[in-house]
């Protein structure tokens, strides 16, 4: 019998390669954006490489209260999108595969989405396509989850008929594995160590950058630098 694997993560802006490795390992990926929006986090920003070192690309958002959820978070203005695309072009324009991907990326930047989650989701779906990742993507709000953080994860897995929950290593701080066992769920812990370096322009090699860096530099070979075999 096929063991169905589910991964659940908050949406991030143009995430790093490890994020897509988790998606690639799952049969279903749940974007979990009905939780508190956290400032200065990966929800609305990520890193790219420049000849002057690492640079943040940050989407300006309206943060009105501490109870604001990620999916309720709106983007402040439209000018950021042009700036971000121009930054990618300025810093990766000479990368071997920038031209292969730029038009579809620019299409998202030219869009009229006002919610951060929707922008992030569009990039995640597009990058999955570039990496040949065919995992189903759903929004956690469609599952109508209840309870505390762990109960929601378990309920999501049950509603999706999963036998395995894939988790990033940071969740070891709060996940009680015995609760998952009681609900007949295995946990597969993602290990982010040991990624192979790839050809990268602009200085010393950096793993902690947007996956766009990998795509622009390695193109169709990019997926060979993920750990998941798919």
Automatic annotation (TrEMBL):
- InterPro entries, per this entry? WbqC
Q: Which Pfam families does the annotation name?
A: WbqC
Q: What is this protein called?
A: WbqC-like protein family protein
């Amino acid at each position: 019998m096929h063991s169905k694997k589910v991964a659940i993560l908050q949406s991030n802006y143009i995430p790093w390669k490890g994020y897509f490795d988790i998606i690639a390992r799952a049969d279903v990926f749940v974007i979990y954006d009905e939780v508190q929006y956290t400032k200065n986090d990966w929800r609305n920003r990520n890193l790219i490489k420049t000849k002057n070192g690492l640079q943040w690309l940050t989407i300006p958002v309206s943060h009105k209260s501490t109870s604001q959820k990620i999916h309720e978070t709106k983007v402040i203005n439209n000018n950021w999108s042009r700036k971000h695309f121009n930054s990618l072009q300025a810093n990766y324009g000479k990368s071997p595969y920038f031209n292969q991907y730029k038009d579809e990326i620019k299409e998202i930047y030219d869009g009229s989405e006002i919610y951060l989650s929707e922008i992030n989701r569009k990039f995640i779906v597009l990058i999955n396509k570039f990496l040949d990742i065919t995992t189903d993507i759903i929004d956690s709000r469609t599952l109508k989850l209840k309870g505390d953080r762990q109960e929601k994860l378990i309920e999501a897995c049950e509603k999706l008929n999963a036998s395995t929950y894939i988790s990033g290593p940071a969740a070891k701080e709060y996940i009680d594995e015995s609760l998952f066992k009681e609900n007949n769920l295995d946990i597969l812990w993602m290990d982010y160590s040991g990624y192979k370096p790839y050809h990268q322009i602009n200085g010393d090699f950096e793993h902690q950058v947007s996956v766009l860096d990998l795509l622009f530099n390695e193109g169709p070979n990019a997926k060979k630098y993920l750990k998941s075999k798919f």
